[in-house]
Amino acid sequence: MAAEKLAAEKPAAAKPATRKAANGRDPAATRERILRAALREFAQRGYAGGRVEGIAKRSGVAKGLVFHYFGTKEGLYLAVQQRIYENLRRRQDETQLAGLGPVEGMRKLVIDTFRGFREMPEIIRLMNEENLHQARNIRGAHAIPALYNPLVAAIERLIAAGREEGLFRAEIDPVAFYIALSGLGYFYMSNRYTLGTVLQVDLEDAGRIAAYEEMIADMVVAYLQGGAATLPMLSLPEPAVVCDGG
Question: What is the pLDDT at residue 80?
């Protein structure tokens, strides 16, 4: 009876509540740590120069664990590329555009896109790397184009609303429009060192950046609100008639 009473009073051994408690490792956290280390490695060294050994060291894991989670160096690089597009798209949150008018919504989209490039400079380096190789690594990554479907749909809704309110011009290609507004932010950041040097200005000055945000927002809205461009016809001289003497 005493033994039975002692057994009843003895607390049951606690079961591991999570896999992390059971084996001392959190797979999701480990994978995220590797991914962040790889982002820094590839942003600094490019795909060819990036080393799995360096990524393992940065993340504090064994090299074999990198391959366990991502399969190959190519698989890890593709995961990094997908991450940078996800990061940019989080800053272009189209759900925040839903409650705004067409002009306010477009201004916000322009500024948010520029801030995404500015706040995450590794995006510029990694996009430059992939463009250098003609998008060969992301070409088959269908998850990345899918990230942009909601954004393009939001742009189309803002354009339609602007037309209905008589604010926007009749013909606007949403894809070409996004390329243009994205380029206004991307080019500033990708060329800030060379342009700052040759123009003798500090393109990282907070006041200059704030002024640039307002300027590109104004430029985009001016395009949206402008009528169809009318250019004068260029009069060309009549071709000379050459007559054979005779």
Answer: 94
User: Measuring CA to CA, how many Å separate 202 from each of 110, 124, 211, 229?
Assistant: 22, 19, 13, 35
List phi, psi (to 5°) of 105.
Answer: -65, -45
- Going from the C-alpha of 224 to that of each of 87, 106, 181, 220, the distances in angstroms are 27, 9, 11, 6
CA 189/CA 131 separation, integer angstroms: 16
84 closest CA partner among 119, 48, 113, 122: 122
Closest CA to 42 of 117, 132, 115: 132
DSSP calls for the chain: -HHHHHHHHSPPPPPPSSHHHHHS--HHHHHHHHHHHHHHHHHHHHHHH--HHHHHHHHTS-HHHHHHHHSSHHHHHHHHHHHHHHHHHHHT-GGGGTTS-HHHHHHHHHHHHHHHHHH-HHHHHHHHHHHHTTTTTTTT-THHHHHHHHHHHHHHHHHHHHHHTT-S-S---HHHHHHHHHHHHHHHHHTHHHHHHHHT--TT-HHHHHHHHHHHHHHHHHHHHS-----PPPPPPPPPPP----
**Token pair of 27, please?**
């797979």
Q: 219: exposed, middle or buried (C-beta count within 10 Å: 0-12, 13-18, 19+)?
A: middle
Mean pLDDT per block of 10 residues along the chain (246 residues) reads: 44 42 67 95 92 93 93 93 91 86 95 93 91 86 89 94 94 95 95 96 96 96 74 40 44
Q: CB-hemisphere CA count at 13 Å for 222?
A: 7
